[in-house]
Fold each of these.
Amino acid sequence: MSNLEYGYLGPPGTFSEQAISNYCARYGGSTTACGSIRDIVEAVTADRVDLGLLPLENSLEGSVNLSLDLLYQHPELKLYREIVLPIEQYLLARPGVKKEEIKEIYSHPQAIAQSGDYLANEFKDAKIIYTDSTAAAAKKALADRKRAAVGSIRLAEIYELEIMAENLQGDLPNATRFVLAAKKDKDLGPNNHLGEAAASDFKTSIICAPKVNEAGVLHRILGKFAEENIDLTRIESRPSRQRLGEYIFYIDLKGCSSDQHLSSALEEVKKISSYFRLLGSYPKTVIE
């Protein structure tokens, strides 16, 4: 079993904690709660934790842009594993509170967005207030009968809140994808379990920017992968922050960078890019 230390977006009761706790139960390790996604990255780069669990995207609400931006801003980071957690949102309040008493609903913006249809239909007049985490929202709900929180069932257990409604996201499949990031030169030891998976289960992530910003440039980049029959699983653009209209691309691909066909495609993309970085090749863990 591993003795690595993992930083996650706390406090206890968040979906991040649920994901990393399940992972550690399987592979070992200990956890440290961080106050924000920036704090996670800072803890990793300052060697206060070995790896950081970063939320990357949600199946309903899309990418977590701050995580993408921080990966770009910190070239010393490398991705080592993907963790996918199914998400179910609950409406939580103090025991005995009735629906008509609720005047304010608190939660993280992602949780509110995932529960948007339910909240719009059932709490049209309630004030929606964003918090840094779902756990922070639970604390708000615990303090006042007029408040409710959106979050996980674990929050109900930790803060002794009552479940007023469940499955707020409806019938849509809701899952969040996390990645474990560490410094490239970090010695993670021989028993870290990070690379355990069949070769077919690996994913490779890169960041790149074209040498020239002109029509067809993205097509040329993607064409290099098509020539080698490499499947793309995701592509996302973010502003370069250098000048208006310039973008960098985050691309996820099936396979490991050591594979001959993928390696060849990556070399070709590198030739036509002004910026190229291999974030890592890593396996996936699905939390049931």
Note: The first strand starts at residue 2 and ends at 9.
Amino acid sequence: MLLLGALTALPAFTVDMYLPALPDVTSDLATTPALAQLTVSGMLIGGAVGQLVIGPLSDRYGRRAPVVVGLVLQVLTSLACIVVPSIGGLVALRVLQGFFNAASQVSALAVIRDRFTGSEAARILSRLMLVIGLAPLLAPTIGSAVLGFGTWRWVFGLLAIMGAVLAAIVLRWMPESLPAERRRPGGTRSVLGGYRSLLRDRHFVALAVIPGLGQAVLMSYVVGSPFVLQEGYGLTHTQFSLLFAANGIGLVVSAQVNASLVRRVAPIRLLRTAIVLQAFFALVLFVIALTGGGGILGLLAALWLVLAMQGMIPANASALALSRHGEIAGTAAAVIGAFQSGIAGSISPLVGALGGDAVAMATVMLGAVLLAILVLATATPAFRRGGWHAEL
């Protein structure tokens, strides 16, 4: 469980450890905040493409081999980031880094589907959020510590070390969860057939899009908060890291509450409740950002509540989606992950495009949550026709 959590959390560490350095990257490479934010959004887009490629490979060759290859290539791109001379080169390398990181995330989700289904899978995914939640708790603090005695380039040196250590652990201790007889043979036609069957399933598509919109909420905060809190409110690297960690605690707490509730409450009910609450808190955040009421404390409290709901949304939606396509779990996990990375990578740059201030961040977050509510409301009749009455 800890290893799967570490693999799933690696992309988050790759983002969160780097966040305190965004203003330094902007200055050192003589660029703009919007372009600096593309080093985060670009990684998400690379991750979306990577998962679509790697997911079917994990169904064909097993879960273990793609993880090892992806980690090795992640190490190489991290080392290249240390010496890159321009913002354009850094954005390109971050796209590649996201692509290779996808192997860890998609394979970890597929391993869970290989071993668990339904409510039990939702419970395991919620427990996994405890490990993933360490990323926002620890990564910015570690990044700030690195910046205390080095430059932003040193962060990538540490990421390279982390990738190498994980690769060694996988080789030594991670067993293969997909036996040869259950692997999906075939070439391009088989892969496209798998994607076609997934995208024709309206239940699956709705459940895959919702975590993507939730991830857009999270990443809008991630790319906007360094500038909103450090430049807008004058917080130091350390103060920003502590506040970022506090929001991570909210994610962890809600994930563990979800893990306890899912034994007694249908995952779809928990999903609906979390999205509605997140929309309400996002509206409060928008009003505070627009009016300035409550000051920084009001803004931070509303942010905490919005982000806490994110501990419940992906686990329930992903478990429900994966339960429908166990025979192509890797491909299904790839679509879910691609939607998460692609939607978040497409929406989060709007924060910078709209000005990069607190109002811009809150506007994008609120818009993403409202879209999630629309998707869920539109999909509800399809769930009923699919015989999910007991879970609605």
Note: The mean pLDDT is 84.
Amino acid sequence: MTYLAFHLVFILPPILLLAWLQRQPLAGMGGVRAWLGLPLIALVATIYTTPWDNYLVWRDVWNYGAGRVMGTIGYVPVEEYLFFILQPLLTGLWFYWVFPLTTEPAQQEVSPWLRASGFVFWIVLSIAGAFMLQSDKTVYMGLILAWAGPILALQWAVGAKQLWARKDAWLIGTLIPTVYLWIADRIAIGQGIWSISEIYSTGFKPFGLPIEEATFFLVTNLLVVQGLLLFLLVGNMRSLLPLISFPALNNGQPELPKALAQVEPGNDTV
């Protein structure tokens, strides 16, 4: 099986099915944000992943089988760039389908320590990833954590309230496509479409899938789903306050700069 055939068999059909099944209004909300969310997250994913993935192939952390790809741009197969777009679309469409089915909770304040805990958790994993780069066997895992962790930490710093309130949505939105992509990835590796270096990975392979690959699809789907959820729900400049004054360090009450104090909730929603 070629890399293009992999897309035609495992990635494009569920995308088309989910696109056909989408409810209206889109994501249960409609509006410009819902329509912009998917192409925007795919664009961001492509920009952020391209240099990282080129480094992985250059470093021989992973590679593709002979005769399995149409060509490369830089070090990365053309089909891999296509995957940068297709995976966010697949996961995003699933999340859009699930989101209206989950319960919208009553408005409530989130503990500042919850925000801090989510932020610190991902920062600690990012730092751990950086340390893992010092050992060949943990290079791949380290690159994954050091690359994804800071963005996941930022998402919790900005949107802990929304993420915690809609945790059922992002948990279901993340887990189902992740398990599906684990299965597809395991088949692709078995078919020799791509391979993971034994030198730069731990060798731990539950059900034949390298733990690094399982981690990769989990964190990338988290990035997509949490990013979409925050894009849909974070509707005003006040939501950015945690970046300016961390609530946990100010008795739970972030200080509001004068320039933002005049921005009323909902003024920039679409």
Note: The radius of gyration is 20 Å.
Amino acid sequence: VGFSFAPNTMTLAYSGCFGSGTIQHELMHVLGFYHEQSRPDRDTYVTINQTNIESGHEHNFNKYRWGTTVYNQNTSYDFDSIMHYGSNYFSSNEQPTITPKEAGIRIGQREHLSPIDIAEIRSFYGCAD
């Protein structure tokens, strides 16, 4: 996970059903992007419920620092990002591992890149609109 000048390899093994959104999510990792809930400012927008996380998966909820592991593109927190985990990802007890601070916010979609995802790819790679 994360940008590298070295070649990246992505392997998708069929182990059930996954759609194009999951493939897009994994390609975002290859392009150098981290999970949205790993942003340094995430605590303003979501609560990570550590007691509900499956043992051994705590690292999936690490928070990174701007400029060291996460490129700051000055975009707003993106609840609709294809890189955002769903509320119950890696739950040990079927209770939420991530709770948006604002009620009614949907997280964890795996249908499409969000407009902010697209803007971040374009910015990171210097692509024209």
Note: Helices lie at 20-30, 115-124.
